[in-house]
């Protein structure tokens, strides 16, 4: 699913800016980094900012329209929407629309996309249900724009977390479930299932069997390495297992919730391999990295945190190096987030798996 954007992926600032202009991504970028940085300070800071390898052309999705979004049919009456950073999905039934997630960066463009599709199909544009993949504001923080009449659907833990958050932009779901719930939409259905904590304690799998489409958010990032710190996941072993859970479903299209394109099974398999490779490298680093210099440097002053930081930072850099080499050119951002991802996997190996290295049981 590449596009004509692939010819403009120069790593130069001019290339980036021209591509950003073509994506019409400026409003979303401004929302993410703040208007000051997007409008004025980006140029001043340019000289201090690191440069990265070009993103592979196959990591990009279709071009955005003038409003800054793309809406496409997955199959039949199931559609997806992206702004290049985030994704949403909706099922357009004869008598109403069921939406999954409402990312704030897409915001009112989600309503425009729904109106566009339903006007062309001659079906109702009324959004009857809004499904939450999980409680995080970056994926459902535009829930409020759908008003009070929409039925919000989510996991019981999502409801608990959102009651606790008290965010007016994220009203808690009123239709909840613990393990499984099927939403019937005309002849179609969405199967909502909970398989335990992974990225968040409440992250669910949303499966459209007739369209052979699975939506699971913040687990797999088609065409890219996972976001910083393995997608800022709260249960790393659960997040790693979620790759296998996803592959157990009989789907051909994946909606990952992030970036500009859909996924296929090979994307999940490739990211699972990336995580396995990183795990292997982290284990080798634990066995081979000598902690002595950090104890010698910081021990005499009693700075325990400096010992940990020096050792853990060095471990992340060492573990990431061969994995960056392997995946550069295959996955976008391999040189951006792999050190952060290695750090989290190293920490998980220590505190989840009990492989404590120099901080294990004292002889
Ligand atoms: Zn999240």
Can you put this structure into words, describing what you see?
Residues 85-258 form the Metallo-beta-lactamase domain. The chain is of the alpha/beta class. It has three domains: 4-56, no CATH class; 70-263, Metallo-beta-lactamase, Chain A, CATH 3.60.15; 274-359, no CATH class. The chain has helices at residues 13-23, 26-33, 35-45, 108-121, 137-140, 156-165, 228-232, 236-248, 265-288, 292-298, 304-327, 334-351; strands at residues 70-75, 78-82, 87-93, 96-100, 127-131, 151-155, 175-177, 180-185, 188-194, 204-208, 213-215, 253-255. β2 and β3 form a beta hairpin. α9 packs across α12 (334-351) and α10 (292-298) runs antiparallel to α11. Mean pLDDT is 90; it is low at 1-44. Bound molecules: zinc ion (ZN). The site of zinc ion has 6 residues, from loops.
Task: List its salient traits.
single chain, 363 residues, alpha/beta, Metallo-beta-lactamase, Chain A, 3 domains, seven-stranded mixed β-sheet, five-stranded mixed β-sheet, 12 helices, 12 strands, 41% helix, elongated, binds zinc ion, TAT_signal
Distinct ligand kinds: zinc ion
Mean pLDDT: 90
Helix content: 40-55%
Question: Rg to the nearest angstrom?
Answer: 22 Å
Strand content: 15-25%
CATH topology value of the largest domain: Metallo-beta-lactamase, Chain A
CATH architecture of the largest domain: 4-Layer Sandwich
Total individual domains: 3
Distance between the termini: 56 Å
Coarse morphology:
elongated
Q: The biggest beta sheet, please?
A: 7 strands, mixed
Order of helices and strands: HHHEEEEHEHEHEEEEEHHEHHHH
CATH class category of the largest domain: Alpha Beta
Count of extended strands: 12
The CATH superfamily of the largest domain bears the name: Ribonuclease Z/Hydroxyacylglutathione hydrolase-like
Order of strands, widest sheet: 1-2-3-4-5-6-7
Structural class: alpha/beta
Helical stretch tally: 12
Poorly predicted tracts of residues: 1-44
């Amino acid at each position: 699913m590449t596009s004509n954007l692939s010819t403009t992926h120069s790593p130069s600032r001019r290339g980036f800016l021209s591509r950003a202009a073509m994506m019409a991504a400026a409003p979303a970028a401004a929302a993410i980094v703040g208007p000051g940085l997007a409008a004025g300070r980006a140029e001043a800071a340019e000289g201090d900012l690191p440069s990265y390898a070009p993103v592979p052309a196959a990591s990009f999705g279709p071009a955005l329209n003038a409003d800054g979004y793309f809406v496409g049919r997955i199959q039949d009456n199931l559609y997806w929407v992206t702004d290049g950073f985030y994704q949403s999905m909706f099922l357009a039934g004869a008598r109403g629309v069921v939406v999954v997630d409402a990312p704030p960066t897409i915001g009112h463009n989600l309503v425009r996309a729904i109106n566009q599709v339903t006007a062309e199909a001659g079906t109702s544009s009324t959004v009857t249900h809004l499904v939450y993949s999980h409680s995080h504001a970056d994926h459902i923080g535009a829930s409020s724009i759908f008003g009070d009449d929409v039925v919000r659907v989510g996991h019981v833990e999502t409801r608990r977390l959102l009651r606790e958050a008290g965010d007016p932009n994220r009203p808690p779901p009123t239709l909840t479930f613990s393990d499984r719930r099927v939403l019937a939409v005309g002849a179609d259905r969405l199967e909502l299932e909970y398989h335990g904590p992974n990225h968040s304690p409440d992250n669910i799998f949303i499966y459209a069997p007739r369209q052979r489409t699975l939506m699971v958010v913040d687990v797999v990032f088609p065409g890219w390495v996972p976001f910083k710190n393995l997608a800022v996941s709260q249960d790393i072993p659960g997040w790693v297992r979620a790759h296998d859970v996803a592959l157990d479903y009989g789907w051909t299209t994946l909606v990952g919730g992030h970036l500009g394109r859909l996924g296929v099974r090979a994307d999940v398999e490739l990211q699972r391999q990336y995580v396995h490779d990183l795990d292997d490298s982290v284990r080798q680093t634990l066995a081979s990295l000598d902690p002595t210099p950090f104890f010698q440097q910081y021990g005499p002053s009693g700075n325990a945190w400096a010992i940990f930081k020096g050792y853990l930072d060095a471990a992340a850099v060492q573990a990431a190096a061969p994995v960056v080499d392997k995946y550069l050119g295959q996955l976008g951002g391999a040189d951006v987030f792999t050190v952060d991802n290695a750090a989290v996997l190293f920490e998980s190996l220590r505190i989840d798996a009990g492989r404590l290295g120099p901080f294990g049981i004292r002889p």
